[in-house]
Amino acid sequence: MTSEYEGIFKNGGIGTYYKTLSEKLASQGRYVILILCKTEKEFQGESTVAPVRHIFATHEAEKFLQLQPIHQGILSGFQQWEWVESESYRILFFVQAIAHHFSQSPIYVEFPDLCGLGYRTIQAKRAGLLGKNCVTAVTMHSSQEWLNEANEKYSLYPAWDWYQKVYGYEQYSFENADLAFFLSWFMAEKVKSYGWNMTHAIHLPYCFTLVPPLDKKRPMLDRVGLNIKRQQIPIVFFGRLEERKGLLTFLEAIEHITKHFADEDISQQLYLLFLGKTVTLHAPETEQQDSQQYIEQQLNNKFNDINYTIISDLFSQEAIALVQELAPAIVCLTSPQENFPNSALEMGQLPVSLVVSDTGGFRETLKLIGRSPLYSAGLPLSKGDGRGINKGGIESDKVRWFEPGNSQSLAAEIANAIEAYPEIPAVPQREFLAQVNQSLLNHRLEYIKQAFTQVSVSKQQLSSPESYSRLLGMTSDQEQIFLQDYGQNIYSGQGEIIDLGCWLGSATISLAKGLEKNRRVALKYKRIHAYDLFTWHPYMEQTVKGTSLEGKYKPGDSFLDEFTRRISPWSPSIAVYPGNVMEIGWNGGAIEYLFVDAMKSWELTKSIIKNFYFDLIPGVSLVHYNDFADYATAWIHLLIYKLRPYFKHHCNLYQAAVFQYVNPLPKETLSLDLDPPFSIFSTEDVHQAFAYSLQICHEKLRPNIAAAKVMAFIYLGDLDQAKQELIQAREMFGNVGEIPLAAEEISRRTM
Q1: 699 or 106: which carries more pLDDT confidence?
Q2: E-state strands within 264-411
Q3: The pLDDT value given to residue 391
């Protein structure tokens, strides 16, 4: 059910998405029927597009359905301006007819959230009027309230009462559909601020069209007849020509650019191409002109010699082909707000420079297809000069971000692209894109299947023997149960999962087993990142004693083969990083769960903080200290205490402790470059830190924490205080746990 469909109407966005989705569903053997809203076209059930078996317009309901007098009475009572209500009922009547005649077939009905056109159908489903074999779904694209906000000061419709009604239809439909999908976390947070209930919603981005290889004959260039000279730089505005897509901001930016390059007569070097549908503008300064008239007026009055073309009558695929034939080009995506734009999915596949409004939706979209850079606009570069390679292998300096709605910021980034022109970025591999697309489709089909079978995927009791089996490793049963539960029921997909020091994979596999069953996260490919030297050490023999690994490896041997074998059932979701974490580092973006079993030295600890902590997500991320109760890693307790303003104790897992990241961590918090080690901690810090750790740890672990305090003073070089702490530890707990090991350390250092 939609008012847009690429190939029937010349639009992108929702229309392109539903065309792609219908192709994907048809390829899986589904029988696809398209019901188009808000159109005067006649289809009579005949399909004009290959993947769709039948097409009906809602206004054909009276012609093709056997409506009863009550139905006709409902439809006749609506005024012309009540088209949302009228369309909503007509859709319901079509769905009722299909559900009645095919009562034994599973029927999946999907709506966009826009205008709440599924309102009556979803009401009917909840009332039991559509039978048990019908599942309703809503995919959130952009609610009217969001559209109104995105237009900033430009009010599209003065009819506030109409808006309020439509907001209600949209919210009800999304909250009460059997399945509710949202495309981006950016949009989810936006509608949550409007009061929408998102607890049942599933994060599932668009399936997208793969851009076909370049036609070397360049037929679109011939067709549109662009007269671009070889020395000119094509700058493309790609999107509907309206305020909401940043048209006015773009035109203001062009004016700034001409002033910036005033000495170089830049007007003759540029060729502006506006690719998008012409619409009526509503901003006061546009005087109710359509966008083509306004563009012509602005450019002709201010830039007599600038070359430009406006092309507004292309289908989406034609517009993409034209940009591809123009490459290298500078493509501007300028919307002040975006949910999960098709424009970025499409342009991100092309070898073009991108100048992009730094909205959450654009950033999530480009990350999905491997074109996300390493750093945000206005933030410090994360590595060197920022020209690193992200995990998708794409050079990050071919995407430039500007402050949304800021024409000067946009002009500055376009100017940077002009000065660097021509740029030929690497583009995502088609195999990678196809894999991402297939994953998205598979998840959608699985959610649909679950909805039909009414399988309740409620939180499992992972502590039961039926759902949990012990994994060989240096993590406790409690940790493994927690990690599996976290991967399945808590992990949201807003960031990555990092396992630092994975050894034989007990933590890695626990997380992967949970992630496999997670309904909230659609993209699970390489979401878990496992680091280790994978070098065998003598102390490991004790843990594998009595297993098939006993005696298999000698000190210094690599056990990467064994780790790879153990994770093989879940390998698609795991990226493996053999080597020194201090050298490998991290440049993969936000981190949602950081499992740390690698703070084996103070130098390693400092490196982990520098490379990983500043990518944690405030209010979301968890940090798991596996060595919390290890006497030898005393710095962990000092670190935890020092970072209390930014981390809150979350839970204890026998020998481990987990903390939630609650406030952004300033980079100057710890002077990590100071030497010698531990010099940033005072004697008072040590006393307070261990008092805090003793307070939050399990009673059985307190001897080990006391032993770690002894070690802290050894590391500080204060052996006298270390001896005093050893005496106190024995008085409080006896000579148990790791206290004897701390005593041996003192003996070695005093011999």
Answers
A1: 106
A2: 270-275, 307-311, 330-333, 353-357, 399-402
A3: 32
Neighbouring-strand partners of residue 400: 355
Structure tokens at 446: 């699985």
| Residue showing tokens 């009791």 | 461
Which segments of 252-363 are extended strands (E)?
A: 270-275, 307-311, 330-333, 353-357
Query: What pLDDT is stored for residue 372 in this prediction?
Result: 67
| Number of C-beta neighbours around residue 300 at 10 A | 11
| Alpha carbons 202 and 520: distance in angstroms, whole number | 5
Q: What is the rounded distance in angstroms from the CA atom of residue 628 to the CA atom of residue 690?
A: 11
Around Cβ 446, how many Cβ atoms within 10 Å? 12
- pLDDT, tens digit, 9 for 90 and up, residues 559-593: 999 999 999 999 999 999 999 999 999 987 899 99
- Which are the contacts of 60, defined by CB distance < 8 A and separation ≥ 6? 42, 43, 44
The number of CA neighbours under 13 Å toward the Cβ of 164 is 3
CB distance 736 to 705 below 8 Å = no
Task: Indicate if the pLDDT at residue 612 is higher than 90.
Answer: yes
d(CA 87, CA 78): 10
Determine the Cα–Cα distance for residues 586 and 574; give it in Å rounded to an integer. 15
Dihedral of the CA atoms 335, 340, 342, 343 (nearest 10)?
30
3-state secondary structure of 658: strand
Q: Which residues pair with 531 in a beta bridge?
A: 500, 577
Q: What phi and psi values does residue 200 have, to the nearest 5 degrees?
A: -95, -5
SS3 577: strand
Place of tokens 């654009």: 362
- The partner residues of 55 in beta bridges, in order of sequence, read 34
DSSP H stretches of helix in 28-118: 61-64, 69-76, 83-101
> CA 619 to CA 615: how far, in whole Å?
13
Q: Which residue, among 12, 11, 98, has the nearest Cα to 56 in the 3D structure?
A: 98
Residue 17: φ, ψ to 5°: -60, -45
Cα 572-575-580 angle, rounded to 5 deg: 160
Structure token digits, residue 544: 């594998």
SS3 488: helix
Phi/psi class of residue 4: alpha, beta or left (left: φ > 0; alpha: ψ in -120 to 50)? beta
* pLDDT tens per residue across span 218-271: 999 999 988 888 889 999 999 999 888 999 999 999 999 988 776 667 778 899
Which range (245-249, 674-678, 740-744) has the least confidence? 674-678
pLDDT higher than 50, residue 460? no
Residues paired with residue 711 on neighbouring β-strands, in sequence order: none
* Inter-residue contact 736 to 707 (CB < 8 Å): no
Is it the case that residue 379 has pLDDT exceeding 70? no
Torsion of CA 586, 591, 593, 595, to 10 degrees: 10
Q: Is 132 in contact with 99 (CB distance < 8 Å)?
A: no
Tokens 């297993």: give the residue: 547
Cα separation, 747 vs 745, in Å, equals: 5
| Mean pLDDT value across residues 407-420 | 94
Structural contact between residues 2 and 33, judged by C-beta atoms closer than 8 angstroms: no
**Distance separating alpha carbons of residues 440 and 20, to the nearest angstrom:** 12
Q: What is the rounded average pLDDT of the residues 311-328?
A: 92
Percent of the chain at pLDDT above 70? 91
Neighbours of 180 (CB within 10 A): 23
Q: How far is CA 570 from CA 238, 356, 501, 510, in A?
A: 40, 35, 18, 10
Q: Is pLDDT of 499 > 70? A: yes
CA dihedral 273, 275, 281, 286 (to 10 degrees): 0
As a whole number of angstroms, the distance between CA 316 and CA 92 comes to 30
Residue-wise pLDDT for 113-170, tens only, equals 989 999 999 999 988 889 888 999 999 988 777 777 766 555 555 566 777 788 889 9
